[in-house]
Amino acid sequence: xxxxxxxxxxxxxxxxxxxxxxxxxxxxxxxxxxxxxxxxxxxxxxxxxxxxxxxxxxxxxxxxxxxxxxxxxxxxxxxxxxxxxxxxxxxxxxxxxxxxxxxxxxxxxxxxxxxxxxxxxxxxxxxxxxxxxxxxxxxxxxxxxxxxxxxxxxxxxxxxxxxxxxxxxxxxxxxxxxxxxxxxxxxxxxxxxxxxxxxxxxxxxxxxxxxxxxxxxxxxxxxxxxxxxxxxxxxxxxxxxxxxxxxxxxxxxxxxxxxxxxxxxxxxxxxxxxxxxxxxxxxxxxxxxxxxxxxxxxxxxxxxxxxxxxxxxxxxxxxxxxxxxxxxxxxxxxxxxxxxxxxxxxxxxxxxxxxxxxxxxxxxxxxxxxxxxxxxxxxxxxx
Length: 383
Description:
Elements: H1 2-22, H2 29-35, H3 38-53, H4 56-69, H5 81-97, H6 109-128, H7 131-137, H8 154-173, H9 177-194, H10 198-225, H11 235-243, E1 249-256, H12 259-266, H13 268-283, E2 290-295, E3 298-304, H14 308-323, E4 327-329, E5 338-340, E6 344-350, H15 357-373, E7 379-381
Parallel strand pairs: 6-7
Antiparallel strand pairs: 1-3, 1-6, 2-3, 4-5
């Protein structure tokens, strides 16, 4: 579902660009003229965002497409296409593999230096050692008559295919959005290098930069609204959900029993694993509940259009499901595995008679406190 949310806007932008390309000739002259500046505007916006958020990957992905698109203005139009392909592939690979160290920091200078060396090496080889490209192109040759003479050499095509395959596998299996952005930048550069049509190049560059802008904004939204550890929506998302709630709703506060003691005994890494397990169970709660991480070891579940009495059975099932789920610690080979009991306590109320969301949360918190006083691993309701 998460992958679908990311890919649908991408296909929408690509589809819109295809339609725009075929109908571009029918646009008013003023619209055509203004559209010519769109890649500049998008690239500058992305570069500004990358500087503001201090992200090197976004900066280099946007800069790569902008440079290839404006190669003629930069005086690089004379560089062989084969060399441009290899340089673009090398930049994409480096940007993908190197960890994000920020754009403006001492830790980022090795990455910046490596990329500058790649660019300098490519330009230097083209001007001072042009024979090496001919040697590279003759390492492998296409069967005679099989393809056009202007196609890339088999060695270059094979490297590009391997890189694209690795990016696809990483993006699909590991949900790596950096790999997907790198793949899109590679495809955009390929389209720009393969076409001499100004209008087509304009649409390709604009489409990729729009997709990159969408992914950057989505990533920013994700960091602001989704908890990184549990992948549940965070407290800000909960507050906005309650602000726009219409009608009644039930609200449950969930707390992991003895979590501090658990952390002190087994370590914070194991504690994080417990929170992930609890979050996965809470995310599967029945009755239409929406799960959020409130903070620390506390979670919140909202049941829209339900009173507290209606969802008690669903919360009781959740308590039972967590208690019945075995959790194993000391899973290293040098240590004997140990199964421990993890339980949760829940306080529940509803919005009936409450003045605002803060009052509802406070009442649910009070119910949770009562549940813990009565022995934990239980559900407590308060009006």
